[in-house]
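Final report, Chapter 2: Outcomes

The project's central promise was a pipeline that accepts a single protein chain and returns its three-dimensional structure in a standardized token representation, suitable for archiving and comparison. That pipeline is now operational. To close this chapter, we reproduce one record exactly as it appears in the project archive, with the input sequence first and the structure output second.
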Amino acid sequence: MKTVSIDSSKQYNIHIERGLLEKAGSLISQVHPRCKVAIVTDDNVARLYLSQVSAGLENAGYSLCTLILPHGEHSKSLGVWTKVLQFLAENGLTKSDLVLALGGGVIGDVAGFAAGTYLREIPLVQLPTTLLAAIDSSVGGKTGIDLPQGKNLAGVFCQPELVICDTAALDTLTDHYFADGCAEGIKYGLLADKELFDAFARGVDRRDMDDIVARCVEIKRDFVQGDERDMGKRQMLNLGHTVGHAIEKLSGYSISHGHAVAMGMVVMCRAAYSLGYSRENCTPPLLQALDACHLPSACPYDAAALAKAALSDKKRRGDNLTLILPLRMGECCRETIPMKDLEGFIAAGLGER
């Protein structure tokens, strides 16, 4: 079993290995005493993994209550967050009890937001079942929901007690959702590790992901430990996300997160090179990596629509927005631009000028 430790406001471990879901009860018992556990999951994940996770928790002496939500981005809403809070209250959870998020990024975000706001925070354990959640959203404590005005506009930092990543769960992902996670892995490589980037560019085998998941988590750990509250260095993890979130919003979330981020990274790479920020042209290798992972590169929206959608971006500070730009493979920088210049910047990335 591979273990990556996070030392932030709360110290916790991310365990990575095939077959860990059935061991969840014993792993959780090492960090949290017997209590009531509220499992929050979705209808797809429940069908695959709920029974084995529940059995392991009960064998370890935990009492359970379970809430099954509809799968998909639309469960990251005010209404669903309220539903989770009411479920926790109706089942009498206290500050010594535990929320367990079993699922992908949507479940981790909404269950984590509920854990962080119910009784002003109760303990949380993340059990990611998608590649995207395993390497990105389950690590670092960001939780939240979408508002009609934009993505992730309501949220809190809620660091988990533990993250249990069973890489065997990746076997059941559709190619589309496995590719979503690959987009975040490519992002990590472009940010900080050319060897990791090259691994994705060659195409990765979902049956042999332990080392790759661990390396992605290590990179995220280094950003989180240096800037837990996302005020500086951690913002680098937003590479491709300003345009990506705009694409998601414009599509009514029919374009999934990883696919949107893939398009957003292409826009940032092209813009950075054409406007003279980059020391090398990162676009050709990025296109190769996206193609190897069956991810899109062409954005279906124009610069005006994307800039308008990005007005509500959570990274905006007044009339300015910080973008993450590739300088060369494995190195990026932060560049703050006026919001009035964003449309032109995106236009350069789309080849509109």
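Archive annotation: The longest strand covers residues 320-328.
This record, like all others produced under the grant, will remain available to the consortium after the project formally closes.
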